[in-house]
Amino acid sequence: MKFFLDTADLAEVEEAASWGVVAGVTTNPTLYARIGGKLADFETHIGRICKLVDGPVSAEAVGEMRADIIEEGKRLSAIAPNVVVKVPTTIEGLAATKALAADGIDTNLTLCFSVPQAIMAARAGARYISPFVGRFDDISEDGLAQLADVVLAITNYDFGHKVEVIAASIRSAHHVTQSALMGADIATVPYSVLKNLIKHPLTDRGLESFAADWEKVVNA
Fold first, then answer.
1. Rounded distance between C-alpha atoms, residue 99 and residue 218, angstroms
2. 84 pLDDT band (50/70/90 cuts)?
3. Measured in Å, how far apart are the chain's first and last C-alpha atoms?
4. Which of 97, 103, 113 lies closest to 163, judged by CA?
5. In the prediction, which pLDDT does 135 show?
6. Using CA atoms, how far apart are residues 144 and 86, in angstroms rounded to an integer?
7. 128: β partners
8. Catalytic pick from 86, 98, 195, 216?
9. Checking DSSP bridges between strand 2-6 and strand 186-189, what pairing results, if any?
10. What percent of the chain has pLDDT over 70?
11. How confident is the model at residue 67 (pLDDT cuts 50, 70, 90)?
12. 86 catalytic residue (yes or no)
């Protein structure tokens, strides 16, 4: 499984990239607004993220109609070679995805919640498909089960191009573990979750024990 960082915060991207585990970044309007982002600075900001990571950086098109999404997608893809255009999983999004794919522009179909949506996204030419896990959990449904169905369905078929499933709306290490076990290609996670994935109480306990025993050696 690859890890993408779900953030628009440059400091988080730079720090996580230094760990050697980040293969890409996903952003959205909410994440950009959370850091106080301004419309005039958006494309410059995406360009800065693209310089911090070697892998794909998803930037979201906010238009609702296909013509607007296509226009935005072309403009976003011109920022850097590793920009991927996030497109909503709607009829207009499918039409835009088909047009962008024909121009060689990679897309990430976001807000995907069902197997039919995922298959249609892949058929339209999506490079990445992002089923949301946590938002199912928010309404007391099993988001991991929905993700497992999407992963199985996508792996059942040859779509004529590479399609990867991104486990999105990840809230915990449990989400990551189960996503990996079911074969999701990528998990896109917030910085706080990514940082906690390396932590384990037995690791901490072992380090404390080693440090205490070494202190005995030093003071012997």
1. 67
2. very high
3. 46
4. 97
5. 84
6. 22
7. 108, 164
8. 86
9. parallel
10. 100
11. very high
12. yes
What Cα–Cα distance (Å) separates residue 30 from each residue in 59, 94, 207? 12, 22, 38
The first and second tokens of residue 36, run together, are 């106080």
pTM for this prediction: 0.92
Q: For the purposes of burial, counting CB atoms within 10 Å of the CB of 219, is it exposed (0-12), middle (13-18) or buried (19 or more)?
A: exposed
For tokens 């089960």, the residue is 145
Chain centroid to Cα 155, Å, comes to 19
Query: Position of tokens 């079911």?
Result: 182
Question: What mean pLDDT is predicted for residues 103-122?
Answer: 97
22-42 pLDDT, tens digit each: 999 999 999 999 999 999 999
Phi, psi of 175 (to 5 degrees): -60, -45
How far is it, in rounded angstroms, from Cα 123 to Cα 161? Answer: 9
Looking at residue 45, what is its pLDDT? 98
> 68 in the Ramachandran plot: left (φ > 0), alpha (ψ -120 to 50) or beta?
alpha
Residue 101 near residue 107 (C-beta atoms within 8 A) = yes
In three-state secondary structure terms, 140 is coil
In eight-state DSSP terms, residue 214 is: H
Whether the CB-CB separation of 184 and 165 falls below 8 Å is answered with yes
Task: State the chain's maximal CA–CA distance in angstroms.
Answer: 75
**Which value, to the nearest 10 degrees, does the dihedral of the CA atoms of residues 120, 123, 125, 127 take?**
70
